[in-house]
Amino acid sequence: MPLMAATINFDEALAELEQLQHTDLPSAITKLHELEADFEHMTRFQQGRLLVFKGTSFIYSGQYQEALDNLIQSENLVQNSDYLFSAYSYEATAYIALRNFKDAFVVMSKSLGLIDRIDNIDIKRAAYLRLASLYSAMGIKEEVGTYAAKALSLAAADNVKDICTAKLYLSVYQLELEIYDKAFDEFQNTHDFCESNGFPLISFIALKGMGESKLRLQEYTSAVALLLKALKGYESFNFQLEINSVHSLLAEAYFSLKQFANAVEHAKFVTSLPNEPSYTELKHNVFKVLAGLNAENKQFEQAYEYSKKEQYYNQLMFDEAKMKTLAYQAAKFNADEQAREINLLNKERELYIAQQTVKEREYTNMLMFITILVGGLFFLGILLAVGQMQKRKFMRMARMDALTGILNRGAGQELGENLFVQATARGGDFCVILFDLDFFKRINDSFGHGTGDWALKKVVDSLKSHIRNGDVFARIGGEEFALLLPYADEEKGMEVAEQCRARIEAIDTQHSGHKFVITASFGVSGLMADDLSLDPLFHRADMALYAAKANGRNTVVRYSDILKCDKQATDLRRHIASSSV
Q1: Which end of the chain is less crowded, N or C, counting CB atoms within 10 A of the terminal residue's CB?
Q2: Rg of the chain taking only CA atoms, in angstroms
Q3: HEC string of 352-388?
């Protein structure tokens, strides 16, 4: 074995392995296993490079903890080298997949700290691309475009792989900005360029982007064709995370085409995945599809169960977004704190010099010292004020619904629970109103999502002035809203709901550029003696809302005992629906 190892040029073998990871992943895995047998005969630096490649292969197969184990081990072997940046970057990718955003930002900060020390333009360009990838995974859109553009500006004509990757992230940037026509063109350009230059994996990723762009443009047949091609390509690379993502998108596309059997097939692929954080968004999408599919087939009980699962994963996504925001805020805050510490150290040095000079020029230098001190304190005060403003801004963003400007689901429910406890502790009443815009999908399908967004904002604007200061108004998802009325009984809730229904029906839609009617269905539930939290009130109001929908829509329904269980509510909805035909 030592004799065989001596004939191998490990540097050339590792360079070949690095190239294969971008062009032929199965061959790269085979090569990796071959080199692992000679691990003990390599130098420490070569061992570190091999562990970086091994960690990368685990990321491709979705084994993120194994990836972290190898990458952390590689740090001590590739110290003070450009591969240390790669180790940090891939560690951040694994932490993001495991939803450990705090540690992801820690290693990303280490990566950023290394960039200024990198003199090699090729490695610096690759570093910018890794940062674009990481910020894309964290959902920080602006940074994706910034670092991808920096990488492309450093690329020469023969840096084909990096040009491919930079073009891909610029395409992703357009997709995340929801400029779908431009995103499709960018992805197509990326696909053609990378395919013709021998980088199939990146071209398959671009194919998926083209398919997703067509899906968002509601060109479902084209989306299916592109996504199937991407799926076949991913399967040849065994790129499991992307394979799962394509199945989710195909379920959505086939459902929109009303090809329900195909939609179910791809949805079941995703639902069979383990309950890991990296699959949260995919499962949310397919349970939404399954809920819609069962509703289409009038299997309302099953649709309701899938809808509950969709809401569960939606809450997980909300919590994850909040965790990302808080981790990003903490990372920025720590960076600001370090800058402040440096400033304070500099001020202390200036103070020391001023004190030494004061012995020679007492009066003049004393005035200078006072000026410097006051200026430093004023500057520090400004930094602290800006930091507090930024902190309040991000906290407010985490609580508000970006489209309508009212509370989002999590913030509304949290505030409502607090008011509920206060009201019940004082012996007061409490009322919950849930309402849902009727046939909202028709507005989106007929006039576009821009008009749908206009309708949602118009409904909120028309109701804001009508709501008491102490009441809670929140958007709880899509076109569904909640009104929480502390110290109000069910009669008052019915009165408020009817007023809101009338105001919505009276909205003049001509200012949207189209002529249509907006109506809403309302469910009302008041406090009962054995209610210990808001959940029972929400549940009863939801059943009443379903009854309002089944009763012809554009109406207000108060919860009654006939709706006291899901089965009875479903029977009532079927009875009303059949009698209205």
Answers
A1: C
A2: 29
A3: HHHHHHHCCCHHHHHHHHHHHHHHHHHHHHHHHHHHH
Q: Which two tokens stand for residue 419?
A: 């008011």
Task: Report the alpha-carbon distance of residue 343 to residue 337 in Å, rounded.
Answer: 10
Q: Note whether 195 and 188 are within 8 A (CB).
A: no
**Tokens 């604007």 identify what position?**
461
Q: Sign of the C-alpha dihedral, residues 529, 531, 537, 543? A: negative
Q: What is the rounded CA–CA span in Å between residue 52 and residue 90? A: 8
Residues 6+ apart with CB under 8 A from 458: 507, 509, 512, 518
* CB of 111 closer than 8 Å to CB of 86: no
Per-residue HEC secondary structure of 513-525 comes to CCCCCCCEEEEEE
* Local structure of residue 54 (DSSP, 8 states): H
Give the integer Cα–Cα distance in Å for 454 and 354: 62
Structure tokens at 391: 């902190």
CA–CA distance, 433 with 485 (Å, rounded to integer): 8
Contact 542, 522 (CB under 8 A): no
Q: Is 513 helix (H, G, I), strand (E, B) or coil?
A: coil
Q: 425-480: per-residue pLDDT in tens?
A: 999 999 999 999 999 999 999 999 999 999 999 999 999 988 888 899 999 999 99
Amino acid letter, 281 = E
